[in-house]
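Internal QA ticket QA-208
Title: Verify multi-chain structure generation after dependency bump
Assignee: T.L.

Test input:
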Amino acid sequence: MTGKLFGLLVAIITVVSTAFFIMHTWWLPQDISVLGHGVDHQLNETMIGTGLLFVAAQLVLAVFVWMYGDKKDGRKIKFFPGGGGVMVTFAIILVGIEILVLTFVGSKVWASIYIAPPPADSMQIDVSAEQFAFYFRYPGPDGKFGVVHPEMLSDSNGNYFGLDPANDVDARDDIVVGALTIPVNRPILLTMHAKDMIHSFYVPELRIQQDIVPGLTIPLHFTATKEGKYEIVCTQLCGLGHYSMRAYLQVVSQSDFDQWLKTQSGD
Amino acid sequence: MHEASAQPAVHHHAPPQGFIRKNVFSLDHKVIGLQYYGLALVAVFIGMILSWLMRIHLGWSTLAIPGLGKLSANGAPGGVMTPEYYLSLMTMHGTIMVFFVLTNAPLAAFGNYFLPIQVGAEDMAFPRINMMSFWVTFVAFLVLIAAFFVSDGPPISGWTAYAPLSAVGKDAGPGQALGQNLWAISIAIFCIGQLLGSLNIIATTLDLRTKGMSLARMPFSTWAWFVTAVMGLLAFAVLLPACVLLILDRVAGTSFFLPAGLVVSDKLQPHSGGSPLLWQHLFWFFGHPEVYIAILPSIGIVSHILPSFLRKNILGGTRTMVGSLIAFGFLSYMVWGHHMFLSGMNPFSAILFSVPTLIITIPAAIITLVWLGSIYGAKIRFDSPALFCLGFISVFITGGISGFFLAQPSTDIYLHATYFVVAHFHFVMGVAAMFGIFAGTYFWAPKMFGRMMNETLAKLHFWLTFIGVYCIFMPMHYLGLAGNVRRYALFSDDYMIPLTPVHKFITIAALFTGAVQFIFLYNLFHTRFWGKKAPDNPWESTTLEWSTPSSPPPFDNFGGKHPVVHRGPYEFVEGGTADYVMQTSPEQVGAH
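Actual output:
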């Protein structure tokens, strides 16, 4: 009785849990990046492979516990045919194959996003993360970023990048904003640095996440393929306002972007 | 019969007389084991109540929690917690659970009590060091809890205490002044206790085995404690200096983890030359083995308990199980970088760390398969220890399998730092290890207290807990897939707001499952003082803890004798008057 109840319960838990995965009741948002499909593909492959393992293992547990309760009927103990060696071989082959497949395919996906250099025509945008906001800097009409002076960094006078426009010609037309506006289908290269804590740049729709570490300049590249407004959230615990640290990503057409740039430069 | 072959022992320290030497500063490994257990029990209920408070806040963020305002007037004015107080509670929950529950209970509590008995020793190799290791751990716990009562409250940097947040001091936010100091000091002290405890377990296993107790005849639980102690010796030896460096950065102006040009709260920090990634490397070089330090003893305990309730040895026997445990321990030192795929370290190293991480699933799969293969054809007795062992297998499968997603850099890009991770580690090291602790408690209570736990309450505890943990942690996978970020005090982002009903469901499940644990607490205390007297060997088990002359065992465990071991740990043979053969039995029995 107890064994049957246990078996039934494990089976129900398995079916219900799996159903929500299969129905995609809660699932990834739409992918809006050029490289994101690799991540999605890898995630789906892993989901199918591990899903089968999950269901099979739980159901075997359920069935065995259901079947092999001690009924005091003088039944003889049985042993698994082949013994432990079979299980060891089975585990090494089954899991081994899964590992090889996942590693070979998955490493390519990883490499395409994090190891491959950004396309040559990428548009560079400078990112500064701080408690608890992201700031973005565009080079302006001259196409050159002004030099950063850490000692001039100041939230109180709005100098989020430590620029010195009085003495630095390149810095004078730099555009500094609190939202990331980019043209659609144009490769973007972010050069990211953090002012105080480790932060992380996460856009679920872009299938991209990267920690931003003080003392390092970390590059990240992507291409958005769909216009719209998305959220950039911080995923590395950075202090009391961590939950509120976010910025908007605005993906617009090239013409709208040009217009936007012109407006910003006019300020 | 076997008494005749036992040899008289010369005890190296006499039974204590006074109350304090007997119960407080005791040298007896059994008393120390119970002290560790008691400490873990206090810690686990504190940790659980913290999780209740956090869950209530995540479901109903504006709800005033009665009494919370009294605990911290600043952190929860009027009972409604601030975002920073949420982070404080989260930090304390993680630290208490990982260190003072999951490391203490399965390894230090059960290991202390039963390892010497299972190898036929009369005590640990170094009783005084053993006493010291407990009291050092106790002090560490007091130092940590003190953080609740200092002016700016407990730290907010999480149990991982990433620098610079943990290293720059009060400019980093509330709790980052004295609270964070207490945290670092507490963990450093805790490391000392663990190092001492690990030494003792290793020395006892290697040197104090009784006649006939070869390594191959040691029970799985003893093997697991031994392997874990070796891992602990290496892991805590790294965390201890890391904590010392962190303290130096905080109070002595050094810059191990702090780079130049750090501007916090609009103030340029007086540091230069350090690296925040160095802390992550040191922490996770400890932290990943630590995860296995939490789960390996429970794997050993479950493998030790199951044969008594299946009436057969685990499939593949000692060679398969111990080989897998050692593989686990060895590989656990090569995988720390999988916590850091997105940390900004060289992206090539992600692939390097991913491979051994995936390979670890092989010993895990072997252990799971031999458990399942052992259940095949068994005659299962469904007492409460067996139920928790079978439940352990289920949650271990669930928690282990989600690791495939996080072990691969390509899928970790999306799931890193989401609730998917929270689901994964709670299943595999939180819930699974807790199930091991419950199984061990129900199994060994007759030996530790001489009394049987109430079986009806125990079964009720199992069913409700088993359903409860799935209701809490399974939906967290779905949250993770939807991109719900962890360590947030509030979910105010546009795409996370629609997930609030899932959080409410989880909160209700957590409150319910937590409440169920009071059944266990009641059962434990009732049994300790008023439980039904236990027979000598209630589960008809085979190992040495069931050969002691009394329950609880006498001061020297075997009543002035050294037991002599004649056979392997789990010999079950059908056909005779009994279907099991004790390790101490010299009789010849037919091989099955």
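Spot checks passed. The radius of gyration of chain A is 27 Å.
Status: verified.
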